[in-house]
Amino acid sequence: MIKPSTTFIKRGLGLALLSFTSLVMAPSAIAVTKAQTQQITQSIEDALGTSGVKVLSITDVKYFDGLFEVVVSHAGGKKIIYSNGSGSHLILGDLIDSKTMDNLTEAKMDKLNAIAFNKDLPLKLALKSVYGKGTRKIAVFEDPNCGYCKRFRREALSKLDDATVYTFLYPVLGQDSIDKAQKVLCAADQTKVWDDWMLKGKTPSGAGDCNPPISQLVQLGRGLGVAGTPTIIFEDGTRASGAITAGELTKRMSLAARN
Asked: Which of 74, 135, 176, 183 is deepest in the core (most CB within 10 A)?
């Protein structure tokens, strides 16, 4: 239950869009005090603690006087909330640089939720596809009934010429998604059956009764804080959400390979 003393500003599905420019708001250097830390923490955990939110850190936002960035843990991952100095008003949303249109919140979230690619991802559970030499690596979490996943695979993944793609089936959109995932994972050629469905609309067939690791895959995604599909994880452990373009995918893969 959210207490009435705490106000949230929302856009769409619980998000608020903040645009700013350095011409309007000069960077500030107001450090959060111990009293503010305690007050903001108490306010947020009182308001959102029942949903499993726990405050991890609080820092000032240099673009706005009196606004603080609060990193919280939630559903196995880390998220960002913005607060005033007392914690009486919270903003759930993204900071956007109006000059470059860079999403500063998303960039920070990438770093906060970064993982060790080879250590934290059980690659043996994934479908493996090699494009060209397969030098660079990415992992993708996809639901069988995710339209954005199909578009991403069609318009971006299929255009790769040097990558190894590990696809983790993440059936979270209902029982039909689970049924399709089971049939894919029980197929003799899992990758072909998956591509036939995602790219050509050929429904997976078969019994799907080989006891595939569906629960393990769902637990993996939740543990990594995968909130939606597709979610792409790069070699450096950073991630991107949604059907990003082929150009953006290639750019992010190149950056990750250099880190």
From this structure: 183
